[in-house]
Amino acid sequence: MEPVQDTYRPPLEYVKGVPLIKYFAEALGPLESFQAWPDDVLISTYPKSGTTWVSEILDLIYQGGDLQKCQRAPIYVRVPFLEFKMPGCPTGFELLEDTPAPRLLKTHLPLALLPQTLLDQKVKVVYVARNAKDVAVSFYHFYRMAKVHPDPGTWDSFLEDFMAGEVSYGSWYQHVQEWWELRHTHPVLYLFYEDMKENPKREIQKILEFVGRSLPEETVEDIVQHTSFQEMKNNAMTNYRTLPSDLLDHSISAFMRKGITGDWKSTFTVAQNERFEAYYAEKMAGCNLHFRSEL
Ligand code: PPS
Question: Does the global pTM surpass 0.85?
Fold first, then answer.
């Protein structure tokens, strides 16, 4: 890919009230002509919730567990990111043109911005949700290293922005709830990062069933092994180190950072935690979604 010059921390741009990375906001116009196919599978998440992990699992499933085939290209090429756009890089939409069926697609878009064709075609959705505190911490470090975001400021001010939904892709609270509700009218497999940490084999079995495939037990065990945090951190096709460092600066914080549940405890102060919990109860009131923030 060509060197990138002008990505340095542009302000977020609002589309239908949703704050987005400037370039991603620009990608939404062209994306209106995107046509979903009924055999597409969409991986949907709020950022930093396990997208790359479930993407690698699904590609391995599609390749019958063949590790070599999953080395054919970086994860962002094998699983095109619908709204991706950066100077000097092909857009997610452009990458899709070279992607044969059956396709795996990635998005972080809230429903208000999701291309309608995905709903019209009843495209199966694998949604992964992660507890808000670990997402906030992971997102903060991602803002620091991915300079297409505005400067995150201090952890304290970033946490305020996160709670207010004033971060890229807007409100975590709204995102996890609206995709949860969507499962009443649309084929959605709703997974939790914490469940994947606890028992990846069980969660992979759920994915297999949902996408209508089966694999021998030994292959499923190989997939568990190959998609462990450490393996994916060492794998150039999943660790995002193939992107230019002006886009992702791993010397500030690695994309594959810690991969654990409960890291928030090393970052939140007692006061931040109390404030977060009180606000969380307000925003999630009446919703029957339950997250675990420790295992
Ligand atoms: S992105 O940029 O939104 O697509 O990021 P996403 O892939 O959703 O989330 C990145 C976080 O997921 C962790 N990760 C993993 N955890 C456990 N096991 C595996 N295999 C794995 N792969 C990625 C990654 O380390 C980020 O979390 P943090 O907490 O920052 O480490």
Answer: yes
